[in-house]
Amino acid sequence: MKNKDAIKLFLKKEGQELVGKHKANFWVLTAIFLLAILSIGFGSASLKYLKYKMDDPFVQWVDIIAQQGATKVGGIPLDEFLNKDNIQTQFQFQDPQPNFVLSMYFRNHKSGKDVQLEGRSIKSNSAVLTKILDSENIVECRNGIPYADNELGIIITVEALERAGYDGQNPPRFVSLSLPYDEETCKIIGLGDGNNGYFDVSFPIVAVVKQLPGMYSFLFTDRFWNDMHGNRTAWDITEEDNNQELLICGDLEDLEKLQAQMEDENLSMTITDYNNSWDYCSCLHIVSRDLNGDNASFYNRIYQSVDLTKFNVSRVYNFMPIYDYAESDPSYYSIQMTSLDGIRNFQEALFENCGIKLDMTSIDAKENFRYVQRMGNTLSICIILISVIFICVFIYFLLNTHFQKIQRNLGTFKAFGVSNKMLDNIYMSLLLILTLSSYIISFMVSWIISLIGGMVNTIELGFNWIDVWVWQNLLLLVMALVAAVVVTKIVANKKLKHTPGDLIYDRTEKKNDNVENKIE
The pTM is what? Predict the structure, then answer.
């Protein structure tokens, strides 16, 4: 018991000595850790933000502009070149598909002004569609029903919705496209005076996503493209086929209230499910029982009996698809690179065979970021190594100076039977506690600084200036603890190898001098 009490007292006294007067040694060690953690945290946060800004989840999908054609004399047509099996295997790509680009006007929900957005076509079997509808990219999406080539619904980005005056995080079921029509005819079928010959037509939103390939604003199907570019437009709402019935979509409660106000024996009204948009809703079908009447009288009866603008509903259209498909060259071809290792060779082969230059901007940016990321990680390791070196030097001089002061006490302990191993373990424990406690305090202070910085100012929403929860800071702790153990063993063994008498009578330096003289 007495030995244990003596050891506890020794630990307490020696701990106080090593911490220093006014805990000076503790605060010096804490300052070293604090500077290292903050430096690593700032660098890691900067790299993480840079990765977010530069990261393109669709970097493996490469677009090749088709309008350039085979400009080289004797060149191979682009579609023929891309669909060769040996070419796909050689340059490590797959799924070559033609795509169309379309610029459309969307009616701003708040201002009523038109906003021009650019979209691209997508096929339902495209590999890129799976990536687009990945859980990390989706904000809202229709469940259970795949995106088919024969539907009119669109996939749109959050940014595009916000430009059109909607809340991107709380998206509507429909978005208004601004389409040109004959004003007089549209007045007859209930579209009012329009807006300089343009009338907004509601189209269902199948999904809302964060990002699309090529920074496009929306995606559309082959039917969407064909209906716009066929021999006649399927979206001509003055066509009789598109005006045999009135379709109004909304929540069931709103539609029931609307139906109650439209009691008319000449109208047949039924409510059914509507599954074309991302969010389930109901659809009120209104059909005239007077088959001999014209569309004008049909719509006039409806609009005279109720004001649709007072209800939270959207008028949609059962557009009749066009089957005489439009013949037009695609805007570009898209391919999926299974590996980016072959992209440079593919770029050269594409130019040699088809005379087409491949835009490598996004891939170059990705490669540059990888270089910056490697350089940033290397700098973090350098900061860790420099910090550990400072810690080693600090602990070495701290222990060496302390042992010089108490070497007579060490000699006395050894004379009373305390082993070198016990003394070694005692000082190793004290230095580990000192190092670990300094690190914990430094880490907590750094974390608090990062939290305060995040509340005061951030780089961008979700990104702080300092990120302390990174693997480099854990590596710093491990290396610092290992360094503390190694340095303690070196200094302690150097001092404790002497006999109790040499330590008590301060003969350690003289012995060292004699050894050096003999060596000379």
Answer: 0.63
